[in-house]
Amino acid sequence: MGEGLALRWVKSHEVIIGSRDAQKGMRAAEEYLAKARAFYGDVMKGTIRGASNPDAAAQADVIVLTIPHEHAASTILSIRDRLKPCQIVVSPVVPMVKFDKDMLYSPIIEGNKVLSYAEALARELKDVPVVAAYHAISAKKLANPALVLNYDVPIAGDDEGAVKVVMELTREIRNLRPVYVGPLRSALMIEALTPLIINAAIYSKIKDASIAFVQ
Amino acid sequence: MGEGLALRWVKSHEVIIGSRDAQKGMRAAEEYLAKARAFYGDVMKGTIRGASNPDAAAQADVIVLTIPHEHAASTILSIRDRLKPCQIVVSPVVPMVKFDKDMLYSPIIEGNKVLSYAEALARELKDVPVVAAYHAISAKKLANPALVLNYDVPIAGDDEGAVKVVMELTREIRNLRPVYVGPLRSALMIEALTPLIINAAIYSKIKDASIAFVQ
């Protein structure tokens, strides 16, 4: 998903690929940049560069956590001291477990309440606004800038300004339609989409799908 | 939703409207039948009749629990002794709570595990197969047989035969596409769709919507 967002947004933005290993981030950035140049040519306004996760997080206006849930805690630990309240953290992270063939959404349980990953993250990051988005986008299709993605993208967040920025960034990706679905607590229902889509692929061969709201 | 399913299925099936008050069930059945006759005319093969919940449950091959979560426990209590393992119970029930303007999915918490309503129900009904379906269908649109519903209907269940019957019943409603998404534990992700769709309506004015998987 990181590759896909980089390839889509580099058309108009500076993109930084963060990695635990800065060298690895730089190599990925070079690879993505070559693909982007081949696709966009002179229309491309941005560049892609690599950095360590903490450096990438410190420099970016918007940080998208394109990491599996298993690695989220250690990544957050490595970047949280570098974040400022004027930045925006976007979480497409989904806690889920594999059962037999299928995936099961596995939200955080706190007493008699269920918490989305995005809400738990927001609590940890305190003043830095967290926006939940991009849980249900096919990483494979996103990484092909020639493909037009005709999806609805449910977005949740408490900070109006931050939500607006993420809605705009979403609209920049051709045919993606951001759909605001409420405060960050609504992230619970968005995160559940990921295992639903994975299971639809496993059991009904609907591969690399996303969702749309149909009226 | 009960009205919509009755109006759609009466074309080929005998429909029984169960109610806590048998008289109320009969009045509803009469009203739906009049609507169905006006719409289908001679093409209609089934009828609609009313009964008390226990009597309706005892007679039906497939029982769809079109009841809000708040009334589910008392309804189940009133019908469970009348159910047999050869029947099928379909659960579109979604436990959710209202927060401020929006709805929040509120699954059952058991120790460190989250359980969908459908799984809790299956445990209570023991030998009677439970299939999770119809959580994300607009009741309003379903109740107008002239409308073609271009939705995907995620379905979860452990009993292969029961799932097959519900898939078939779903296909009988014009343009609905049943999508099997795995064993009953996948109901967790399907149930979460209802508050997601409600919140999309509240915050983004996407009214009476359902979902489709987009490839």
Secondary-structure map:
The structure is a homodimer of 215-residue chains.
Chain A: H1 2-9, E1 15-19, H2 22-40, E2 48-52, H3 53-59, E3 62-64, H4 69-79, E4 88-91, E5 96-99, E6 102-105, E7 108-110, E8 113-115, H5 117-125, E9 130-132, H6 139-142, E10 152-157, H7 160-171, E11 177-180, H8 187-191, H9 193-204, E12 210-214
Architecture overview:
The structure is a homodimer of 215-residue chains. With 215 residues, chain A is α/β, with parallel strands linked by helices. In chain A, 40% of the residues lie in helices and 23% in strands. The first copy, chain A, has helices spanning 2-9, 22-40, 53-59, 69-79, 117-125, 139-142, 160-171, 187-191, 193-204, and strands spanning 15-19, 48-52, 62-64, 88-91, 96-99, 102-105, 108-110, 113-115, 130-132, 152-157, 177-180, 210-214. In chain A, the strands form four sheets. The first copy, chain A, has a five-stranded mixed beta sheet with strand order 3-4-9-10-11, with helices on both faces. The first copy, chain A, has a two-stranded parallel ribbon with strand order 1-2. A two-stranded antiparallel ribbon of chain A has the order 5-6. In chain A, helix 1 packs across helix 2. The first copy, chain A, is globular. Chain A starts with a helix and ends with a strand. Chains A and B meet through strand 6, helix 8, helix 9 and strand 12 of A and strand 6, helix 8, helix 9 and strand 12 of B. Strand 12 of chain A pairs antiparallel with strand 12 (210-214) of chain B, so a sheet runs across the interface.
